[in-house]
C-alpha cells in the first residue's frame, strides 16, 4: 500500500468489507462523481448532521470532530446560521453593486491586521486567494520564481497546484518552483531553526537565479500544517522573509489554516513571528464553511495591478458571504475563542505528552493552540517515522468516535485540528480514546 501523505487517511476500494448500504453509496458516488474524488478513512463515514464539535452518522453515532477547521466555530454555529438565513432572504448579490455588508466586514477584518495591510479583496476559496496573490506578486515584482516548503499545500488551481507538493508526484511542480525543508523542530541538526530555514531559503533564491528565474515570492503557512505541524520557536520566519525581500520578492502568509485565532497566541499565525507580510491569504475558516475567502494586501503592492487589471469575482464578497464572515469574526471576538484555543490547546498537548510516558510510539508532541502534531515513530532513539502505526491510530480513532488525520513527508504525524469551541472536556475524551487505541495498536 502507498503510505504517502495523500493516502494515509484515504479509503482504498477492496481493503475492507463494507455493508450493503455503504457499498451501494460508494458505487453510486464513483459512478456519478468520477474517479478523482477521495473519501476519508479505511471505512468511510456517512455523516448526516453536525452540531458544535460533533458529527453524527446515519445510525446516530457521535464522532468528536478534531480535524475539520473549515467549521472553525464548530458545525452549524447558531450565529452563522442565523446570519446566512437572514441575509439570503434579503439580498444575495456581488461586489459590483454597492452594499454595506462587505464594507463593514472589511473594516472589522482589517482592524485585526497590521496597519501596513490596507486592502481586502474577496474570493470564494483559499485556492482562489492564493491564485490571485501569485498574480499580484508577479505583477509587482516582475518575477516568476516561487519558494515553498517540501510538503506544502496551497490549493488546486493550475497556478497554485504547481507549488503544492503535497498533492503528490503525479502533480508536477512548475520549473519556476523551489522547495525547502520545513523547519522541523524534532529533527533539527542544530536546534537553530531560524538560521537553518533562512539558509535554505537563501539557497533556493540562488538556485532560481542560477537558472535565470527572478524570485517573485516565498509563501508558507506559519504552522506548516502539511509538513508535519511546526509551531515551536516563534520568530524563526524573520530571516527567510528578509531574504526573499532582499531578492526583490514578496512574502505571502497563507493563513487559511493558522489564522483566525487558531494558534491561541494571536489572531494571525504570522504575528507569532514578528513579521508583516506583503499579502495574506484567507480561506476555509472565514465563513465557518460558507464559501468565502480573500487576500489582505499592502496598498503599494496592489496599486499597479489594480490600475492595469480588472478584478471581480461573481460570488466573492457577495452579501451572504460577507454576513457569514462577519458572524464568524464577531463570534471569535465575543466568545473569546482565541483564549479558548490557547487554554484548551495547551491542555490537550499536555495530555498527549503524558501519554508518551506509556506509549513509546509517541516521539514528539508539538503545535500551537488548537493545532497539534503528534509524531509517531518506530524507534525513539533514531526517530524513525512509522506511517503504518500512524494509519492504524487514525483509523482506530475513527472507530472509537474521534476524527483526526495525518500529515508530514513520511505520513507519520497525527494532525489534530479541532474547532475553536473545543473544550478541555473534549480534550479529555480525545486523550482517553487515543490512549485506548494505542494500547490495542
TrEMBL record:
Any coiled-coil ranges, and where? none
Top-rank taxon: Bacteria
Is the Transferase keyword given for this protein? yes
Q: Which Pfam families match?
A: Aminotran_3
Q: What UniProt keywords are attached to this protein's entry?
A: Aminotransferase, Pyridoxal phosphate, Transferase
One GO MF annotation is: transaminase activity
For this chain, the family text in UniProt reads:
Belongs to the class-III pyridoxal-phosphate-dependent aminotransferase family.
Under PANTHER family, the record lists: ALANINE--GLYOXYLATE AMINOTRANSFERASE 2-LIKE, PTHR45688
- What is the official name of this protein in its record? Aspartate aminotransferase family protein
Q: Lineage, please?
A: Bacteria, Pseudomonadati, Pseudomonadota, Alphaproteobacteria, Rhodobacterales
Amino acid at each position: 500500500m502507498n503510505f504517502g501523505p495523500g493516502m494515509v487517511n484515504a479509503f482504498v476500494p477492496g481493503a475492507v468489507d463494507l455493508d450493503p448500504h455503504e457499498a451501494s453509496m460508494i458505487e453510486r458516488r464513483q459512478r456519478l462523481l468520477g474517479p478523482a474524488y477521495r473519501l476519508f478513512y479505511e471505512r468511510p463515514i456517512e455523516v448526516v448532521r453536525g452540531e458544535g464539535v460533533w458529527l453524527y452518522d446515519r445510525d446516530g453515532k457521535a464522532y468528536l470532530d478534531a480535524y475539520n477547521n473549515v467549521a472553525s466555530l464548530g458545525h452549524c454555529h447558531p450565529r452563522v446560521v442565523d446570519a446566512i438565513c437572514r441575509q439570503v432572504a434579503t439580498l444575495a448579490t456581488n461586489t459590483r453593486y454597492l452594499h454595506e455588508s462587505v464594507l463593514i466586514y472589511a473594516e472589522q477584518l482589517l482592524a485585526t491586521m497590521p496597519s501596513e495591510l490596507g486592502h481586502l479583496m474577496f474570493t470564494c476559496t483559499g485556492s482562489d486567494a492564493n491564485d490571485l496573490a501569485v498574480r499580484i506578486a508577479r505583477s509587482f515584482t516582475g518575477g516568476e520564481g516561487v519558494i515553498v516548503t517540501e510538503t506544502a499545500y496551497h490549493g488546486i488551481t493550475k497556478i497554485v497546484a504547481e507549488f503544492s507538493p503535497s498533492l503528490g508526484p503525479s502533480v508536477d511542480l512548475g520549473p519556476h518552483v523551489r522547495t525547502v525543508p520545513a523547519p522541523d523542530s524534532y529533527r533539527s541538526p542544530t536546534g537553530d531553526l531560524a538560521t537553518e530555514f533562512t539558509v535554505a531559503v537563501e539557497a533556493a533564491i540562488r538556485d532560481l537565479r542560477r537558472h535565470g528565474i527572478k524570485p517573485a515570492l516565498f509563501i508558507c503557512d506559519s504552522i506548516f500544517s502539511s509538513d508535519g505541524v511546526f509551531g515551536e520557536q516563534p520568530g524563526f520566519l524573520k530571516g527567510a522573509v528578509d531574504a526573499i525581500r532582499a531578492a526583490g520578492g514578496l512574502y505571502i502568509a497563507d493563513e487559511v489554516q493558522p489564522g483566525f485565532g487558531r494558534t491561541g497566541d494571536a489572531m494571525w499565525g504570522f504575528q507569532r513571528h514578528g513579521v508583516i507580510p506583503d499579502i495574506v491569504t484567507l480561506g476555509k475558516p472565514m465563513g465557518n464553511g460558507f464559501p468565502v475567502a480573500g487576500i489582505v494586501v499592502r496598498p503599494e503592492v496592489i496599486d499597479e495591478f489594480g490600475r492595469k487589471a480588472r478584478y471581480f469575482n461573481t460570488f466573492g464578497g457577495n452579501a451572504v458571504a460577507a454576513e457569514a464572515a462577519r458572524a464568524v469574526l464577531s463570534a471569535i471576538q465575543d466568545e473569546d475563542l482565541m483564549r479558548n484555543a490557547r487554554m484548551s490547546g495547551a491542555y490537550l498537548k499536555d495530555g498527549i505528552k503524558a501519554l508518551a510516558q506509556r506509549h513509546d510510539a509517541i516521539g514528539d508532541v508539538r503545535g500551537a493552540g488548537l493545532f497539534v502534531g503528534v509524531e509517531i515513530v518506530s524507534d525513539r532513539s533514531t526517530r524513525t517515522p512509522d506511517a503504518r502505526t500512524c494509519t492504524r491510530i487514525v483509523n482506530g480513532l475513527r472507530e472509537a468516535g474521534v476524527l483526526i488525520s495525518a500529515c508530514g513527508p513520511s505520513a507519520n504525524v497525527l494532525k489534530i485540528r479541532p474547532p475553536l469551541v473545543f473544550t478541555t472536556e473534549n480534550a479529555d475524551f480525545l486523550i482517553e480514546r487515543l490512549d485506548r487505541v494505542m494500547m490495542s495498536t
